[in-house]
């Protein structure tokens, strides 16, 4: 628990420094994790508490990614999304994978490193655009579509990595069935869900937390 508190304090300091310097904080967070983790000083060790927080963080990260995705917007701009996304995937994913594999990582570990490299590159760019108030630039729209494409790819990668030793085809079928059930519940129970979420007490927060964690 002490290690997590130290990590949070370090992240707070890094966030303040990055804000002051007007640069993205993501690289600092990654470096801090390496330095504080077992590969560095060993101050923060992986235990049940840290695993719980990492799982919760990943679950809600994907949840908020889903909230931000607009299917109709993606459909209207599918050419821009696919073109820029595929180029970005082939360049950044390939570089990260080859570099990690040459450094001695296994195929699965190299894929994880490549996914982190692939996602963090655009995330740092978008963060920089937001912090420097340059989202109105003409190039910014392409970068935003890259981020959308990356979100979709990473959801697929994380889903299959979480499959472990399960049969991938069976795992994919299970995911599709789960998504279909969620869609049916949302479609036919829309009025009930709105009645719960459109409240001013703590019920919407509790309902959202339980729904997201239970689904995961």
Question: What this model shows, in words?
Answer:
This protein has about 220 residues and is an all-alpha fold. The protein folds into 3 domains: about 1-45; about 60-160, no CATH class; about 165-215, no CATH class. The protein has 10 helices and no strands. Helix 5 (about 80-100) crosses helix 6 and helix 5 packs across helix 7.
In short:
By secondary structure, the protein is an all-alpha fold. Helices cover 80% and strands 0% of the residues. The chain has helices spanning 2-21, 26-36, 48-68, 71-76, 78-102, 107-131, 140-161, 168-188, 190-197, 203-215.
Gap from first CA to last CA: 25 Å
**Strand count:** 0
Q: Work out the count of structural domains.
A: 3
Category from helices, strands and their pairing: mainly alpha
The geometry reads as globular
Give the rounded overall mean pLDDT. Answer: 76
Poorly predicted sequence stretches spanning 5 or more consecutive residues: none
**Beta-strand fraction estimate:** under 5%
**Which oligomeric state applies?**
single chain
User: How would you spell out the order of helices and strands?
Assistant: HHHHHHHHHH
């Amino acid at each position: 628990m002490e290690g997590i508190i130290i990590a949070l304090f370090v992240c707070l300091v890094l966030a303040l420094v990055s804000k002051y310097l007007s640069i993205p904080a993501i690289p600092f967070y990654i470096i801090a994790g390496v330095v504080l983790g077992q590969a560095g000083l060993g101050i923060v060790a992986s235990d049940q508490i840290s695993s719980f927080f990492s799982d919760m963080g990943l679950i809600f990260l994907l949840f908020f990614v889903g909230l931000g995705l607009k299917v109709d917007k993606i459909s209207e701009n599918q050419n821009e999304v696919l073109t820029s996304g595929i180029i970005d995937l082939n360049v950044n994913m390939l570089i990260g994978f080859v570099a990690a594999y040459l450094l001695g990582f296994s195929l699965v570990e190299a894929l994880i490193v490549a996914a982190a490299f692939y996602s963090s590159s655009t995330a740092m760019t978008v963060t920089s655009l937001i912090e420097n108030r340059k989202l109105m630039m003409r190039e910014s729209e392409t970068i935003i579509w890259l981020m959308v494409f990356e979100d979709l790819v990473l959801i697929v990668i994380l889903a299959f990595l979480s499959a472990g030793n399960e049969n991938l085809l069976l795992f994919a079928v299970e995911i599709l069935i789960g998504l279909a059930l969620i869609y049916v519940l949302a479609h036919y129970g829309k009025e009930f869900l709105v009645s719960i979420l459109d409240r001013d007490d703590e019920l919407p927060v509790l309902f959202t937390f339980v729904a997201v964690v239970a689904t995961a």
